[in-house]
Design goal:
Number of helices of chain B: 5
CATH topology of chain B: D-Maltodextrin-Binding Protein, domain 2
Structural class of chain A: mainly beta
Helix content of chain A: 10-25%
Helix content of chain B: 40-55%
Oligomer: heterodimer
Strand content of chain A: over 45%
CATH superfamily of chain A: Porin
Strand order of the largest sheet of chain A: 1-2-3-4-5-6-7-8-9-10-11-12-13-14-15-16
Distance between the termini of chain B: 42 Å
Strand order of the largest sheet of chain B: 6-5-7-1-8
Number of strands of chain B: 9
Distance between the termini of chain A: 27 Å
CATH class of chain B: Alpha Beta
Number of helices of chain A: 6
Shape of chain A: globular
Largest interface: A-B, 50 and 35 residues
Radius of gyration of chain B: 17 Å
Radius of gyration of chain A: 22 Å
Number of strands of chain A: 16
Largest sheet of chain A: 16 strands, antiparallel, barrel
CATH architecture of chain B: 3-Layer(aba) Sandwich
CATH topology of chain A: Porin
CATH class of chain A: Mainly Beta
Number of domains of chain A: 1
Order of helices and strands of chain A: HEHEEEEHEEHEEEEHHEEEEE
Largest sheet of chain B: 5 strands, mixed
CATH superfamily of chain B: Periplasmic binding protein-like II
Order of helices and strands of chain B: HEEHEEEHHEHEEE
C-alpha cells in the first residue's frame, strides 16, 4: 500500500502541472450470466449455479498516466470487481509504475508492473481489446490470476526491428506478488481445508516473454509468434484444518506458453499452448503422516479427514497442459464473430480434465460502447453443460 | 453466368475506385521525407517513437474512408484491430492514447503546427505546406 500511496502522490503532483501531458482511461462492464447443469468450471472459482441468471459480474477500472518527458512516464490504474460470489467493489491497485525508456531497444519499469505471459495476460482485464467475454479459462484461469497478473518489482523491455526480418519484442519482469489478499486464492485455500492465508516468505516471480512478428509486406505479414515462461517460488506456512500440524512447504509453479496469432484485415486466427507444473514439496514428516494413514488423492475417499487434505497432497503431481484455438471474423467494422475451442489435460488426474467450445459475438455501438453475447458449451467431469453471457461495456 | 460475372466485375471496379487514395504527410520543416513500412507500423502500434533518429508522434483519424484505407494499405489491419492495440497499450500504462482527430482538416492543422507529427490524408486534400512522406 505504501507504493500505492507514493504513486498517487506523484500522480497528483504531476497532474497538477498544466504543462505536462496527462491522460486518463477507464472502463465499466456489466455482465449477465446464466448457466445450466453442474458447473465446477465456474462454481469452483467464481459463480454458483445460476439457472435463474445473475447480474453479479461487474468490473471497473480507472487509471491515468503522465508523460513527464519523452522518455519518462508514470501511471497507475485501480480495479474493482464483483465476480459472482467474490469481490465487493473493493478497489485494488491493478498496476502502477514509473517507466523510463532509454531507447526503443531498452526501457525499465519500476513499481507494480503487469506480467507479460502469453498473448493476453497483460490485457486480460481490458474487455474492449478482445471479442470474447472470457479468455480461455484453460490457459488464462481466473483462479490463478493473482499469481500472474502483476509483480511488485521491476521489468525491462524493448523492441528491435528491421524491414528485412521483422520485429522482435522482449519483456522480463521480476518481483513478488500480492497473493494474500486475493479472494480466489483464499477461497481455494478454504476449500482445501486451510484456515488462514499462507504466509509467504522469500517469494519471487520471474517472467520472460519473447514475441516475434514477421515483416510488413511479406507473405506472412500479420503472423506473430511468442514464447513466455514464468517461475514462481515461495516458502509457505500452511495450516490445514486437519492433519499433523502447520507446516512449511516449498511452492514451485512453472508456466510455459507458446503462442501464435495471424491477424489480417478481415479475420484473426490464434492458438496458445500452456504447460504448467505446480509442485509443492511436502516435508518428510507430512509425507510420513500420509503414508501411515495410506492417504493420497487417488486411493483415499474424499472427506475422510478433509477433501482439501487430499488435494494438497495431490498438488505434488500437478502437471497441467492446456491449449485453445480460435478464429474471429470481422464482418463489418462494428460486428465480429469468434469461435474458440479450449481443452485442459491434467496429467495423472481425470477429475479436472475438460474442454469447451465458445461462440462469441461483439458489436461496437460506438467508439466507447461495446455489446457482447457469448455461449460456452463445456464438457467436464460433471457432464455437459452450458453458460450464456451478455455484457455491455463502456470505456474511455 | 457471364452477366453475373460482368456485374460483379463492375461492382468490384466501382468499389476500388471508391477506396480513398491516402498519403502519409508531415510538416515541410520537419525534415521527415521518408519512412520504412516497419517504422510506420511500429509508430502506429505504439512501439517506436523515432524515425531516422528524430522523435515522431503519429496522429490518426477517428473513422471514415481515409482511416479505413490507411489501415488496410499501410498496416494491413482493420481499424478495429488498430483500436484494440491502442486499448491494450493505454490500459496497461504502456502509452498514452495517440491523438485522434475528427477530420482531415484537423489533421492538416495539427501537422502545420508541429514538426513532430506524422499523419495521413486523402491525396486530394494535399496542400503545398505539407510534405508527402515516402513509404519505403
Amino acid at each position: 500500500m505504501k507504493l500505492f500511496n507514493v504513486l498517487i502522490l506523484i500522480y497528483l503532483c504531476i497532474s497538477g502541472a498544466s504543462a505536462i501531458d496527462f491522460s486518463y482511461n477507464g472502463q465499466l462492464t456489466q455482465t449477465y450470466i446464466q448457466t445450466t447443469g453442474n458447473q465446477p468450471y465456474f462454481d469452483k472459482y467464481m459463480f454458483d449455479r445460476t439457472d435463474e441468471g445473475s447480474w453479479k459480474f461487474t468490473e471497473m477500472t480507472l487509471g491515468g498516466s503522465v508523460d513527464i518527458n519523452e522518455k519518462f512516464r508514470v501511471g497507475l490504474q485501480g480495479i474493482s470487481r464483483v465476480y459472482g460470489n467474490y469481490g465487493n467493489y473493493d478497489v485494488t491497485l491493478d498496476w502502477g509504475y514509473a517507466d523510463y525508456r532509454f531507447t526503443d531497444y531498452f526501457g525499465v519499469r519500476v513499481g507494480k508492473v503487469k506480467t507479460a505471459l502469453g498473448l493476453y495476460n497483460e490485457s486480460r482485464d481490458i474487455d474492449s481489446a478482445r471479442t470474447s467475454i472470457f479468455l480461455s479459462q484453460d490457459v488464462y484461469e481466473e483462479s490463478y490470476r493473482a499469481f500472474i497478473n502483476s509483480v511488485n518489482g521491476a521489468s525491462i523491455y524493448g523492441s528491435f526491428e528491421k524491414d528485412t526480418w521483422g520485429t522482435f519484442d522482449y519483456q522480463m519482469s521480476f518481483g513478488n506478488v500480492d497473493i494474500a489478499d486475493d479472494f480466489f486464492f483464499n477461497d481455494q485455500l478454504s476449500q482445501v481445508g486451510v484456515t488462514k492465508s499462507p504466509e509467504f516468505s522469500g517469494d519471487w516471480h520471474a517472467t520472460l516473454s519473447l514475441e516475434y512478428a514477421v515483416p510488413w509486406g511479406s507473405k506472412l505479414d500479420g503472423l506473430k509468434l511468442a514464447f513466455s515462461h514464468s517461475e514462481f517460488r515461495a516458502k509457505a506456512d500452511i495450516a490445514p484444518v486437519f492433519g499433523p500440524r502447520d507446516f512449511e512447504y516449498d511452492l514451485d509453479v512453472s508456466t510455459t506458453i507458446y503462442s501464435v496469432e495471424y491477424d489480417q484485415y478481415k479475420y484473426t486466427l490464434g492458438a496458445e499452448f500452456m504447460h504448467r507444473q505446480f509442485g509443492p514439496k511436502i516435508p518428510d514428516y507430512v509425507s510420513a503422516f500420509n503414508d501411515a494413514f495410506a492417504l493420497n488423492a487417488t486411493t483415499h475417499p474424499t472427506g475422510f479427514l478433509s477433501s482439501g487434505w487430499n488435494q494438497i497432497l495431490s498438488f505434488s503431481t500437478n502437471d497441467l497442459r492446456a491449449y485453445y484455438v480460435y478464429g474471429a471474423y470481422h464482418f463489418t467494422e462494428k460486428y465480429t464473430m469468434q469461435l474458440m475451442y479450449s481443452e485442459t489435460d491434467h496429467r495423472g488426474r481425470t477429475d479436472t480434465d475438460r474442454n469447451a467450445i465458445t461462440f462469441s459475438q461483439r458489436y461496437d455501438f460506438s467508439d466507447y460502447t461495446v455489446g457482447k453475447l457469448e455461449y460456452m458449451h463445456i464438457n467436464d467431469d460433471n457432464g455437459k453443460w452450458g453458460a450464456f453471457l451478455a455484457r455491455l461495456g463502456y470505456s474511455f | 453466368m457471364k452477366k453475373i460475372f460482368k456485374i460483379v466485375s463492375y461492382l468490384l471496379v466501382g468499389v476500388s475506385y471508391c477506396v480513398a487514395d491516402v498519403v502519409i504527410v508531415a510538416n515541410k520543416s520537419s525534415g521527415i521525407t521518408s519512412i520504412s513500412r516497419n517504422e510506420l507500423v511500429s509508430l502506429y502500434s505504439g512501439r517506436g517513437k523515432k524515425v531516422a533518429g528524430k522523435s515522431v508522434k503519429p496522429i490518426m483519424l477517428k473513422s471514415g474512408p481515409s482511416h479505413e484505407a490507411f489501415c488496410k494499405k499501410y498496416l494491413n489491419r482493420s481499424p478495429s484491430s488498430l483500436s484494440k492495440i491502442w486499448k491494450k497499450l493505454v490500459f496497461t500504462g504502456k502509452a498514452s492514447m495517440l491523438k485522434t482527430l475528427n477530420n482531415e482538416n484537423e489533421i492538416i492543422r495539427s501537422i502545420l503546427s508541429s514538426n513532430e507529427l506524422v499523419g495521413y490524408i486523402n491525396k486530394d486534400n494535399l496542400t503545398d505546406e505539407l510534405v508527402v512522406v515516402e513509404v519505403r
